[in-house]
Design brief:
The chain has one domain: Porin. The protein has one helix spanning about 5-25; strands spanning about 35-50, 55, 60-65, 70-75, 80-90, 95-110, 115-125, 130-140, 145-150, 155, 165-174. The radius of gyration is 17 Å and the shape is globular. The chain is mainly beta. Strand 6 (about 95-110) and strand 7 form a beta hairpin.
Amino acid sequence: MKLNRYHSSYHKTFCAAIIIILLSSLHLRAQQPSKLVAYVGIVNPIVSLSSGTITPNFKDSYQVGMPTGINILREGHLGFSLEMVPYIKIASGNSKMSNFLFHPGVLFPIGKEFTFIARAAFETSGRYGLTPVLSKVITHGQAGKLFLATPFPVRFGNEQKISIAAAFQFGYIF
């Protein structure tokens, strides 16, 4: 398979991002003890853009994901996140698991309970890429925290054009 120069630059950018994520997670090991938290949520893809075509999630089918993960946190510093997301697709009255996403990343707390998350993405569909996420804790409970997030997946591979999407996620941190 030959890669044109545009695909080559995307692959280089993807590899550089993975290296930065891995190096950032190494920084965590030299600091104070970690805090381990788990979370579960729902992610609703809203819209995607590929080859100049905008496709809303609700046009011909509905797709929803259930992100589940663990975060290793340092007080006020970087954290590491390991997320797994099964996706269900509903179309014409039928539903099936359509994709599984392995989604490791680095957490960057930016203040006022906002966190920027830089995730690598590896899908069973054969696609891969990056997902920048902006997350905000919106309420605290006795057992955990409720959060909202806006992921912006960028995907390559599997002989498909590059796609960029936007989604809405909410969840609960234990």
